[in-house]
């Protein structure tokens, strides 16, 4: 006798139970496919805590989507439960340990608001008006300077600048002419460095229509209307048998209302400078051997707050405990709802996919661009951004040192190891800033170095000086010491 296999209609799901209201037929492949999409595409990433901190730092409030990703509510609950400990842990995720080098004060430290500063930098570069500016890679030979005779068999150079060294014989270029010799041309490797310069300054600006629209959408009246609408949609979904999707939507709606009553405040001294010097110059990158760098200059209150200070303050732990518990329960209920949808399939799975698409459209309110615009406009802050391409890292660091006008050199110790050749390079760069000509070189000083080392010192300092002049001209602003 053949076994009896019950027939399960795809539109009724795995329970094969008829809903209160009839639902149309659903192809089996659609039901199976829609059931697994949420568990694949709607999960929080390992960088969720890091990104959450960035948005909270810029907006000053906790924002939750209509249908938050699975794990987001748990992350907010951990933030409320752990407080500053969570902030320290989350800051090390995402883009690893973003480092900051204070060019003027000589300090180095991890970025305090790595996610927020990354959002600001990305927004500024997306809206810059000019293409990347290429820095000079050649320096003219000054007349009358001391040069070296080329030997018949020049040694290979290890200089990354590609400048071919010469032998150790000295002769004045105005008295004796050296005979041209044929040398084998070699192409030296260059590791190009890109420096994005972001200048922050205060300027009273009118609020954009996006800012006004977001203010309206974030009002209590609007959120109350959204809650009523979501309650109506959830009840309707239950009548059609979509219980999992209904519960998932309710978790997001009630969590948003709960977070609405939780206040985050800006700490004392927010966007204010503690120093008499109101101009800052800080280098920012993912690590010491990076190829992409960011130079934050301008208003010290803004730059120091963004890279070195806390941007939001949490209330006392006693006020956070209740909301943390509620969000943990909401996360557990959302997990049960989404796994139920994956098992039930049918129209419940398809409805959840549809609301995932609606949520993706709705969450433009919480996108990085709008969060950045709100932060800039609320603080009366403007950004001028330009990008520069250098032929090497030494040239770039020297240009930053000359551009900043600072006297501290130890800020670059982690990037370029302290060495007598580095000291000579920086010393010659300082003389070039004061004199502006290469005639400051004496034959006694040149004689202290090998051909390779002197060419490195001369070329690096000359290119750094030329690049610093370009930076000052392009940014129209010199960071005063």
Distance between the termini: 95 Å
Strand order of the largest sheet: 2-1-7-8-6-9-3
- What composes the largest sheet? 7 strands, mixed
The low-confidence runs, each spanning 5 or more residues with pLDDT under 50, are 143-185
State mean pLDDT (0 to 100 scale): 81
Structural class: alpha+beta
Rg (C-alpha, Å): 31 Å
Beta percentage is 5-15%
Please report the total strand number as a whole number. 9
Inertia-based shape: elongated
Strand/helix succession: HHHHEEHEEEEHHHEEHHHHEHHHH
Helical coverage, percent range: 40-55%
Helix count equals 16
Chart the SSEs and their pairings:
Layout: H1 28-41, H2 48-59, H3 72-82, H4 84-90, E1 99-102, E2 108-110, H5 114-126, E3 133-134, E4 146-148, E5 170-172, E6 193-202, H6 209-217, H7 220-239, H8 243-260, E7 279-285, E8 292-299, H9 300-308, H10 317-344, H11 346-362, H12 368-379, E9 381-390, H13 393-404, H14 420-435, H15 443-447, H16 451-475
Parallel strand pairs: 3-9, 6-8
Antiparallel strand pairs: 1-2, 1-7, 4-5, 6-9, 7-8
Helix pairs in contact: 1-10, 1-11, 2-5, 3-4, 3-10, 7-8, 8-10, 13-16, 14-16
